[in-house]
Amino acid sequence: MTEAAPPGIGALWGGNRDFRRLLAAGLISQTGDWAIGTGLAFHVYLLTGSTLSTATMLLASRLPDVVLGPVAGMLADRWDRRRLLVGTDLLLALGLLPLLAVREPDQVWIVYAVALWTGALGTVLAPAQKALLPRLVPESHLVRANALHGQSGQAARLIGALAGGLAVGAGGLAAVVWIDVAGFLLSALLLASLRTSSPAGGERAPARRGPSVLRERGVRLLVAYMVITGLGEGVFATLATPFVADVLGGGGDAYGAFLSVQAVGGIAGGLAVAAWPGDAPPRALLGWGTVVFGLADLALFAYPLAWPVLWPALVLIVVAGVPAAAATAGLTTLAQTATGGDRAGAVFGLLGSAHAATGLLGLSIAGALGDRIGIVPTLCLHAAGLVGAGLMVLRRGR
């Protein structure tokens, strides 16, 4: 592990080669995830003309998060995390190649199979990356490191979605495949060069026998938080389109801008947390960050009742991205330290599975409530849920 250095982004970034490489590898692989997800959704619709086919592809890619989260966490704790990440990137690159054979609508099953394969491997990546990070930076730098690492996902969202759409439009699905294969191979090379060991310091770490991580009070709090916010994300994913189209009167370009500009606020928030002087308490970041995030969302969803124009929504969703990034940094740090580094993978696997499962439930709830009480009131309930989740963290944290 790198020796502790004076706090600050400069010390963390400039003095830690392995952290820089993990950050770069995460940015590259997540950009590939966004690019292939965007490219596949667009290509499947062009190939079949069916929204059901596109929905099936998306379901195949997301279902592994629900089913395999705990297994992925167990692998991150049992095996050398660096080697697990390298192997996963190589398998992702290999698994994309069958897409080159897709030419006709009756070959769409290949897309479904690849989406399921990449979804399963993507489930492995997240807990292994987050559980590995504490082995690369001192504990006093964890909040800053998590804030910076979290922004690789925001940057990937901006770059990958745009790159996937442009690539599939210019060169077809094959262009997206080759770009992603190259990206995953580069990510594997960067991860292979990390100077770290398995959790037990050897070739392979034995699983620590003992009670479930749910026996830890801090883990139960984080699971409850993920259940609440997962439901809300499912609601938002379902109702974002009608909110922009029906409530604000926007078109497809407005919808794309609405979804992408939140990443701008997220990047700004992550940099602000990383640059904050002194040590920001992770529980306060999670609690207050979520409360402010919920209040910003409440303003975002409620203002069209009095003034249904588009541009304030773009401003407010950028603003909401700032506290959301702070909350994410706090959440990740708490999960990394809740049980000890040897079981961090299990914690992240459990949290990811809870979030994904309740997100799917939120999709169903949103459809029913949106029709019954309206789009804006349902989205406001989601915002109120965020405020409640943040207050729960602050109250139980005492």
TrEMBL record:
Swiss-Prot/TrEMBL keywords: Cell membrane, Membrane, Transmembrane, Transmembrane helix, Transport
Record SUPFAM superfamilies: MFS general substrate transporter
Cited InterPro entries: MFS, MFS_trans_sf
Keyword Flavoprotein included in the entry's annotation: no
UniProt subcellular location: Cell inner membrane
Signal peptide limits: none
Membrane topology (UniProt): Multi-pass membrane protein
Residue ranges of the TM segments: 84-102, 108-126, 222-245, 257-277, 284-303, 309-334, 346-369, 375-394
Source taxon at top rank: Bacteria
PANTHER family in alphabetical order: ENTEROBACTIN EXPORTER ENTS, INTEGRAL MEMBRANE EFFLUX PROTEIN-RELATED
Protein name: MFS transporter
